[in-house]
Amino acid sequence: MNQLLENLNALACGLFLLTAFGIVAMRQARGCLNLFIMQSLLLAASAALLGLRFDSGHLYGVALVNLISKPIIVPWLLRKTSPAEIYTRREINQALNIPTALTIALALAIGAYFLGIPLENATGPEFQGPNVPIGVAGLLLGAFTLTVRREALSLLIGLLAMENGAFLAGISIARDLAMLVELAIATDGLIIVFIMGVLVRAVQKQIGTTTVGELASLKEAAADATVKKSMP
Amino acid sequence: MNVIVILFPPLVAALLVTLPFRKPQDWVPGVTVVSCLIALILAAQMAWRIAEGGSVTENLGADWLTWIAVDGLSALILLLIALVGTTAAIYSIGYIAHANLEPKKLRLYHANYNLFIFSMLAIPLLAEPTLVWIVVELTTLCSALLVSFDNTRDALEAAWKYVVLSLMGAGIALFGFLVLFAAMQAGGGGMYTWAGLVMAAPNMPAILLQTSFLLILIGLGTKVGLVPMHTWLPDAHSQAPSPVCALLSGIETTSILYVILRLFPVMQAVPGAHAETWALVLGLISVGTAAFLLLQVRDYKRMFAFSTVEHMGIIMTAIGLGASAGDYGAMQQIVNHSVTKSFCFFAAGAVLLTAGTREIAAVRGLIRRSPLAGTALIFGGLAIAGAPPLAVFLSEFSILKVGLAQGRYVTTGLLATFIVIAFFGVMLHVNRMVFGAPSHAASGQNHRETEVVATFQLPFSCRLALILAAVPVLVLGVYVPKPLHDLLTMATAALTR
Description:
The structure holds two protein chains of two kinds. Chain A is mainly α. Chain A is built from nine helices and no strands. Chain B is mostly helical. Chain B is built from 21 helices and no strands. The longest helix of chain B has about 35 residues.
């Protein structure tokens, strides 16, 4: 039984890693959101499976919180706060082309594996499993997404994917974290979506696009030009 | 009295300002000032009690309330937040009224302002690391709309960078805190609080502790503005309205730095953990980079923002030199930087109101246009650059003294060199702005402006805030009151096991 649960958990983690790669590669903003929802479902699945495996009510709680907040409330909040335009955007000139981005992502995932192993070994045998290395990979791939993307929604998804990665590792190494904390972290994720949604709306109103990557006038070297422009 | 009470005034005020009474411009700013003032009184009371050796931690009985604890270090940070929050609230009255905002925007400003203060006050109050992480996130989220408040292209860019980079750092720090929790569990468990961590530290696996420290240092260091994670800071700290800049630079960075400082006593339990070395290296890189960038800035608000990077670096270097080494220079630097930097941004705001531009080259002969703004700017420049006998000089001097006493000549020499370069960087620009003659090319236009600006007087609340903020800058340079001395000593003691 335990073996089966561990195998299923490994499957969930493997698919989680796949969605993380998908977020790096997906051009369509809408597709990014869908991948993120899938990723959150896999995170919830992994939490539930580990909860079953270690008989931990707390992990069921984590699974439930993830199940409600990310696939349901996040898209709802986004619809409420930000312009519909963010869904229809495609990444046209992201900083790196997709094959290059995926190659770097692969290197990051392999690096994450070597980063994760010593951590796992230090926490004792009962903690071992695919969660820590894949969680770290999720974290790094999320951060990488942030650096290559220019579309508002893809950037937001990158941030949330980082948090998902940290959590995937967390449900394995920090199983007994207080429930209140988990709830607060989930709420916090929702506030992130809300505030960034409001910001995107303001950006769209002001400059007419949600490609926030185009905002790049604040620099030391360019300060001269921009200040002059803004002066009457 | 429960310590948690201090969180209520800003929270209540944030709700109050959204009430649909008429003429919000008449009462909304007052609500903010009153709430900050109450928070200041409560913080001062608490700090006083702790300085006199009163109860150091408050155990409020119920299980989860053990997560709230105040000691010398947190009381000091609380006091700073409340103090700068109050002066900035007073400054806001006139500064924001000057912009003639529509009522909705005004309410938005004050609601966000109070929530921002609330989230910052919660940082030193909470003792559970993951909860602290959450309120650190909240500081970013509550201040994001304040940074983008002007709603210009540049302000939006700054806010966006601020949010994305801070939250990216926070994601890394979250993993760090989870690893820290795992380390605690692996080391036999205990209360997951700052105090519990210090107690359990000797049993924790060294590799987990080190990993979590680095993750948190990088993650939260992003928000503190340590080089090379500082890129968002000059943008956000210059584009926000000036009172908000004072909050961001003066106390937000400090309160995040406080969270990093909490890890040092934990790390000292691990032999060969080198937490101090990391602080020293990151600190020196920050001071050095900021010192040279200060020479070439073109925007005076960015200048003060880079000076924040410099001072965060100085504090980290001081911690790296051994915070406990018989002197409380690092803690004193934290206090002095907060009060001085908030004054600097008030002065910068006064210049902006007077001259209407952020460009250094466009502001000349300020002292003739507005004697008060000119005096404030030169005073702020001298104070933040570390001229004697002002507050920052005293703490920088004692940091260098500790460095020399320990025989760390290279480090101390580098630090001193960078401080001197930064001094010239700041004073070069400030001098030109205040005393320089109006340039020829724009003289025709300037002539007319002089007449207009000659009648320009800063709003009363701005003048009041400038004077109030100048008091600690002057006083702390020559005299450290006994309760503050005790508090600084206790705060320094909290940095070592």
